[in-house]
């Protein structure tokens, strides 16, 4: 019988919802060693926290994150707040001996990230950063294919994350839905928000990135700030593109923007190896594109694999429906949680840990530095 | 505050899971007037019913469907068992005054269906048949587009539902996962299982079908029966294709099979109107294809609409995530339930009612009859 | 050294252009045993015939097709006129001992077709009907795949040919660009014009069609006739859909229309076999879709084969450019001509001969008959 | 009546064939002011030159390019030889007063290119560099859309040109089919061969590139040389990716490689503007992808425009077949030639002239320099 896992989530925004949903669903579909119990939701506005608690079935709510962290009746602290709050909450939770799931990116900068890693490792608590796209079944399948050596030597890795939601100069910075445009809350723009996903997957799939040359741009220079009500300079990167070298000798090409008209959340990657290639995109997340050079010549072609085979062929899909029936975005969080709970039971780290997420932070930092310096920058630790 | 809705589900198979999931999720995402409470799950094997109850949080379990139907502490009876059980359970539930959701197809045959309609209408209970694909947002959007008159006069409606899971002669008939191959349990093969979906959508989108000419085939003539252990004649249709006339003057073309190698659940439809066309398929259910002849000549083309706009543009999508992030198959059941609960509160019928599903049953019946007679057959009531 | 082949083309319309282009190009790309020499173009209006001759480099022009047929200095007569002229020209050309290429469909009806077959077979002249789509490389590759037994037992064959150019009631019947709407000139509508292509490919790929049930419709009942200037009843089928049985036990489903808004020349086919499936469409004619069930489970998917491999893997493509570079519609005529010339040199028939095209005519006739009778009709000779 | 244009082509390889084909076809489809007459083909091996002349109908052949250039009976010199021969032939042809079409890239380096520009401008001869992809109808349509201001402010331009034909270390350098791997003949690798196309289109579509940061790699360091028979160091770039700034403030991202397994000639570009976006790829060259933000919200989506409308809507397509029927790669050369002949008649320069191609050469040079220097490099003249 699964043991109860008492959950406190800090942040009831978009990520608070995706995480709450995962806790509600995970035991319906996975044989997990812990049965999550929603104990407390924490957020800035009490009425909203209460409404959220009612809607999702939380036993209580609070506006004080410290109460969550310090509560002995909480087993896991799940951090779903803006980036500038990650470090202090995570460090406090680690000290309190909680298991921790933290939204990405890990921190505002490498220094914070290093402190966070030190804290969780000193405390010896289970920890995970929510780079959820690793656990879209097609992306997980890509990793399995790579690990099986099916690609051979890798020549190229390219990834994009394209959106278009901030093209209008009327979109403000700061506030609930738009804190990602406020450098104080977010630390950076597309680099920390979107490229961090691309980089996390790339490091997982293709190993360390050693050096980068980046180009960043802020197309809309000033936006009204929701909290001050004033038009203020925009401190984030609206767009960032970089070229890089991987430790394995392959070349990388990455781009992210919120100014690609027509694309909403188009995270794409493609890997070209000596023997085969893989491609994927988030707009059709249930498909993996696969080209295998060893297929017979006249019949070679890119395969569109519908990653919905519940017969055991495709990662996680035996838990869901029947072949041909898609799952969606939210399921990546369920998979992540199922893996994390299993890791907790087995006392094994589950990727990406804070330490692994710090490697992504280092790449992001090198990218932002290069964007400013106009020079190739080495990546710390790689 | 939402009133409690006490739920009893009969059948813990594939559909028992999709419905249970919908009851668990609906109030997290929709502001529903009733808050579902999982009271009892009913199924054939007690240990399995118990395990299901534990996994999904049902308060109790039983192997006797009559206990569910007669229990005064149950508000809604949800029928997720094979087709040959629908009529008796639904009629009993109606007599007991329960709200009823019944899996499709409505019944084994029109006679049963008529009895069921009479029962629910006499009892005045809320009733719905779970043709869930109507509530895939792209399919709902198609209906809205049609209702807005954007297609003009309709010339053609074509739909397919292609699978490949019964090609092997080793697949048995009867039993838990394979009752759909047993004519006694299923009533028919692809016609009731798959074409019924296509027909339901077609009637909804395009109005009555008046006459049909069909071709049916059973490719594998004998299969071992799970319950008897003997090789027996297969009584279902493995494949069925038909041509038809709609009441509005348009021509229809439908095909379904479980022998289309490479397709798992490829439900597709396309509608060609004087002014515009629509196409959709279940393998990429979050997309709608749209061609509008009034677009400027040089720039005309089929649009691939990513039906994920949470800003209010796309049906149901304001309840989920952010633009670009897909939902999946299971969500159609959540939408269906949300609408049904809303209808119950407002004391309004919610489509497709038993009566509406009977119209689909009539078409299926005409199709099966035509497949045998080799003649054009008129559709009852159309 | 290639011998000269003296060419006379009758008809300078759309098909006159595609055939002229083939004669001009064939020896530049293929090592053909005959070098075509454009001797005479024949057409209704002398000034137009002359202009065509100048543009394409014909040595002469005429308005009298009999002069072409009777001219001893002509080796091959190529018939590119409306369907109602095919029989008399072909029969005369056969009597005169000419090699003959005739545009499809073979004739207005089976009786004419039988006479034509008798004439060419009695005369022993090389003869071919221009079902050019057989020689789109992807379609030819499909045939090769089928012949290699890679599909196993065939269950389903489906094909569509969808256009939208006659939706407007203002499109006239009769005349140069619109004779296809005039039953006197065309014999039938989409059945002879479009379905004939689908049927020719189907017979080639999948063997005889034995019986059919069809539905035909004329959406626009009256159109102005270009020649009479009067509004007259439309005698052709605007749309035709039929279901059928093949001799090999598989089921067929065909549809054609000129009322499918958004589709210009969307000829599609799909074949589902026990072991594999194939699909193709004319809007991306350089691609073949291929699903092979023997591919490893987790990596199975529909392949999109870019049929442009000049290294010998793909039919005809070694004659053109380099891998990745498409050819287009017109090349199917060049391939057809290259094969026909090779057959002439080797004194071997080249498919589809008049006799083979007569089999297609029989299917078309059964389809049109069924459309009127409302009954299943047997196909002559199958 | 069109005047004769006496053509001499130097080089009978792949490009010699594409250009010969264009001269043969152009007057069949376009009303051109000059009628090309194939006078002489020139190439290294006499027997091959003779065979080519026979196949294509050239009046004569030679192995000495100077004879072509100096022949008073030649009006146009068409240069289809490796890059290291372009300058001397073009300069001599200019001095001899010939019209000149030269294959891309213009030259081995900017210094050569500048000499060539000076020569043709001094001589006042019509001149064009064969960046043929500009005249794929979809690419030409993209230019028209941009010029009409439909995209608004441009934020991003990205282009790739991906191939996979040199992955094997067994592919040699030098010689007929592989001179592109020999730095002495080619000047550079993918930069001059493939990125030059991407850059030409980009400059045309989006204006000057001002600065670049590039990453180049040679994956296979040594290859056997066909001419020397020895294994020698490879001097070309196997892969090159660069980021850049355009003069209009947009960001660019370009990548090319011959090591992208599964891609044969995948030239792609995408342009993101404030109001709309465009995308295209060479593997489906007859389609243009178009997203227009001003489309109604619920129905917004990427359009796939089948650029085959002969009714005048799509560039060049009124010259070919009927809507829905594709043209291919070779037609871009026919269009280029038709435009060049028209320009000659009107005594107007036709883009891209040598001078315009020099701008592309400058970007290539900056890219190659940056690949070596590891620094951002300014582009000359921009």
Strand and helix layout:
The structure is a homotetramer of 382-residue chains.
Chain A: E1 3-10, H1 14-29, E2 34-42, H2 46-56, E3 60-62, H3 65-70, E4 76-79, H4 86-95, E5 99-103, H5 110-123, E6 127-130, H6 137-147, E7 154-162, H7 183-186, H8 190-206, E8 209-217, E9 222-224, E10 231-233, E11 239-246, E12 251-257, E13 266-273, E14 276-281, E15 287-292, E16 302-306, H9 331-346, H10 354-373, E17 377-378
Parallel strand pairs in A: 1-2, 1-4, 2-3, 4-5, 5-6, 7-12
Antiparallel strand pairs in A: 7-13, 8-11, 8-17, 9-10, 11-12, 13-14, 14-15, 15-16
Helix pairs in contact in A: 1-9, 4-5, 5-10, 6-8, 8-10
Give a quick rundown of the structure:
With 382 residues, chain A is of the alpha/beta class. Chain A has 10 helices and 17 strands. The longest helix of chain A is centred in the C-terminal third of the chain and has 20 residues, at 354-373.
Any overview of this molecule?
- The structure is a homotetramer of 382-residue chains.
- Chain A has ten helices and 17 strands.
- The first copy, chain A, has helices at 14-29, 46-56, 65-70, 86-95, 110-123, 137-147, 183-186, 190-206, 331-346, 354-373, and strands at residues 3-10, 34-42, 60-62, 76-79, 99-103, 127-130, 154-162, 209-217, 222-224, 231-233, 239-246, 251-257, 266-273, 276-281, 287-292, 302-306, 377-378.
- In chain A, helix 4 packs parallel to helix 5 (110-123) and helix 8 (190-206) packs across helix 10.
- The radius of gyration of chain A is 21 Å and the shape is globular.
- The termini of chain A are far apart.
- The relative contact order of chain A is 0.16.
- The model of chain A has no long low-confidence stretch (mean pLDDT 97).
- Chains in contact: A-B, A-C, A-D, B-C, B-D, C-D.
- The A-D interface holds A 155-156, 158, 162, 164, 167, 213-215, 217, 219, 239, 241-245, 251, 253, 255, 257, 259-263, 272-277, 291, 293, 300, 302, 374-376 and D 155-156, 158, 162, 164, 167, 213-215, 217, 219, 239, 241-245, 251, 253, 255, 257, 259-263, 272-277, 291, 293, 300, 302, 374-376.
- Strand 16 (302-306) of chain B pairs antiparallel with strand 16 (302-306) of chain D, so a sheet runs across the interface.
């Amino acid at each position: 019988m699964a043991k109860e896992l008492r959950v406190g989530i800090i942040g009831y925004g978009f990520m608070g919802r995706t995480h709450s949903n995962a806790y509600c669903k995970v035991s319906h579909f996975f044989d997990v060693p812990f049965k999550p119990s929603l104990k407390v939701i924490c957020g800035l506005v009490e009425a909203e926290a209460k409404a959220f608690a009612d809607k999702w079935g939380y036993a209580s709510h609070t506006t004080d994150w410290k109460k969550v962290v310090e509560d002995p009746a909480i087993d896991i602290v799940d951090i779903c707040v803006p980036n500038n709050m990650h470090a202090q909450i995570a460090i406090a939770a680690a000290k309190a001996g909680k298991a921790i799931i933290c939204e990405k990116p890990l921190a505002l900068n490498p220094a914070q990230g290093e402190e966070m890693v030190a804290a969780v490792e000193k405390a010896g608590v289970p920890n995970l950063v929510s780079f959820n796209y690793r656990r879209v079944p097609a992306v997980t399948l890509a990793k399995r294919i790579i690990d099986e050596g099916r690609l051979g030597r890798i020549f190229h890795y390219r990834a994009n994350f394209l959106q278009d939601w901030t093209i209008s100069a009327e979109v403000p910075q700061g506030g609930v839905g738009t804190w990602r445009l406020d450098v104080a809350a977010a630390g950076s723009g597309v680099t920390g928000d979107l490229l961090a996903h691309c980089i996390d997957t790339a490091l997982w799939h293709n190993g360390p990135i050693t050096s980068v040359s980046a180009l960043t741009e802020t197309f809309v220079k000033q936006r009204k700030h929701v909290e001050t009500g004033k038009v203020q300079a925009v401190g984030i990167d609206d767009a960032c593109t970089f070229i890089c070298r991987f430790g394995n000798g392959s070349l990388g090409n990455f781009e992210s923007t919120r100014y690609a008209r027509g694309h909403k959340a188009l995270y794409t990657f493609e890997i070209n190896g000596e023997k085969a290639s893989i491609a994927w995109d988030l707009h059709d997340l249930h498909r993996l594109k696969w080209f295998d050079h060893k297929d017979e010549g006249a019949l070679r072609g890119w395969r569109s694999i519908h990653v919905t085979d519940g017969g055991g062929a495709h990662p996680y899909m035996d838990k869901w429906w029947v072949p041909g029936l898609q799952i969606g975005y939210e399921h990546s969080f369920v998979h992540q949680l199922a893996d994390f709970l299993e890791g907790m039971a087995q006392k094994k780290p589950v990727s990406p840990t804070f330490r692994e997420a710090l490697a992504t932070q280092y790449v992001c930092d090198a990218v932002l530095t290069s964007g400013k310096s106009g020079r190739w920058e080495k990546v710390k630790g790689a």
